[in-house]
Write a structure and sequence with these properties.
3-stranded parallel beta sheet, alpha/beta, 13 strands, 334 residues, TIM Barrel
Length: 334
């Protein structure tokens, strides 16, 4: 695995981007994202997927090209939660009812082992799952069909079963959406939801599954695009120093990799230069941006400027990313 001291600044900055792309094979633009922007990872969506064989060829080609360019292995990620969020379809095993039907440790473990094995076989090494959001009893929000059943403690326990099972099969788990979006009724793909629940209430409920996952060794967490006004009335969690530095890293002691949710969502109302600066300020490691545009170049350019101004914070972020890639390589089944 590359060491940060052996990498150029462009290579370091690229590690902080996970991006989407167009096409189903190694196109010239995808090569550009790897060899010029030097992205650290990619995410596949339904338009990138024709069949398991095609995905396997694509993943192999991307990893081979990254190696040819002298870069660390790519994170190759997908949203495969089961239920309504499952990018890979048959002949992979489908879990049509998703997390709400995974109400026992055995069911959660079976989902994680099956999904991890099948994703790894076609070349993925990261799943944007499990969802650790908690839906309050008697409440039906935007996440109703995507959350595990039960109390915060039960959600955490079931999430850990999925997380550990995925990683046993060589696929890194990314727990989400910190600090919890189970209480929201608006969709951050379309607007910026506001949540005024006090932090002390969140600490007894929404944060509990994340505490359980962190204690079990969770290595990566995705931040939500929800504005938690009791914590930070200016920025959504994904761009908030109070949420990330104050709660996630400070209060909860998480020292793993942090990433935004998709920066293309309508909940992100600022421009990409501002978003990039906030990512640095908030101590977020990876920007996730899922739809090809010139925003990729804006993020990379602004990250490079910020890395020059704040080299220590940048080095810590890249170090966490490279350490996670080392874990990814070490956990891969033989």
């Amino acid at each position: 695995m590359a060491q940060i001291s052996d990498m150029t600044l462009d290579e370091q900055v690229g590690q902080r981007l996970i991006v989407g792309f167009d096409g189903t094979d190694l196109t010239d633009d995808l090569k550009y994202l790897i060899d010029t922007l030097k992205v650290g990872g990619v995410i596949l969506f339904s338009p990138n997927i024709d069949s398991p064989a095609q995905v396997a060829d694509l993943c192999h080609a991307m990893q081979a090209y990254a190696a040819h360019c002298g870069l660390p292995p790519l994170f190759i990620s997908v949203d495969q939660e089961g239920g309504q969020v499952a990018r890979m379809k048959e002949p992979l095993t489908l879990f049509p009812e998703g997390a709400p039907a995974l109400g026992t440790p055995e069911a959660a473990r079976h989902f994680g082992r099956t999904t991890g094995k099948e994703l790894f076989e076609v070349g993925y090494n990261m799943d944007m799952a499990p969802v650790l959001d908690v839906q309050p009893e008697g409440f039906s929000g935007i996440m109703a069909k995507r959350v595990f059943p039960g109390s915060p403690q039960e959600v955490g326990a079931l999430g850990v079963e999925v997380m550990e099972a995925l990683e046993t099969e060589g696929v890194l788990a990314v727990v989400k959406h910190f600090p919890g979006i189970g209480r929201t009724t608006l969709d951050s793909h379309l607007t910026l939801p506001l949540l005024d629940t006090p932090l002390e209430v969140l600490s007894r409920t929404d944060l509990v599954p994340f505490e359980i996952a962190f204690a079990a060794g969770a290595s990566a967490v995705m931040l939500s695009h929800i504005k938690y006004t009791d914590i930070d009335d200016q920025w959504p969690a994904s761009l908030s120093p109070e949420v990330v530095k104050g709660v996630l890293r400070g209060r909860m002691g998480f020292n793993g990799v942090t990433m935004t949710d998709d920066l293309d969502m309508k909940a992100v109302t600022c421009d990409m230069e501002t978003a990039a600066r906030q990512i640095f300020t908030a101590d977020v490691d990876i920007a996730l941006i899922c739809h090809r545009s010139d925003r990729y170049e804006t993020l990379a350019k602004t990250f490079k400027t910020m890395a020059t101004r704040f080299p220590g914070a940048h080095a810590l972020a890249v170090g966490r990313i490279l350490a996670l890639k080392e874990i990814m390589t070490r956990k891969a089944p033989n």
